[in-house]
Design brief:
mainly alpha
């Protein structure tokens, strides 16, 4: 059970970090490239640190909670029987 929850936690952390990096990259590209070329102006960027940290914590928490059901199901299975069936 612990292994599945650990895997879910790492997957949630990876997803949150990749989403953060790609989201910030896309926002900077839109603000400084697309706005500049399309409209001739740009704006200042002020990333909301507290909001982003809260969102990342929420994503990570929900990912770990989503791993609880598969972890409980796997904990109830007999590993030897599962391996012999395959």
């Amino acid at each position: 059970m612990r292994g599945i929850l650990t895997e879910a936690a790492f997957l949630g952390l990876l997803a949150a970090l990749v989403g953060l990096v790609l989201g910030l990259t896309l926002s900077l590209l839109l603000v400084f490239v697309v706005n500049k070329q399309s409209f001739g102006w740009t704006i200042q960027v002020h990333p909301p640190g507290e909001l982003l940290a809260g969102a990342l914590l929420l994503v990570w928490s929900v990912t770990v909670l989503a791993g609880l059901y598969p972890a409980r199901v796997a904990a109830r299975m007999n590993a030897i029987e599962v391996i012999q069936e395959e």
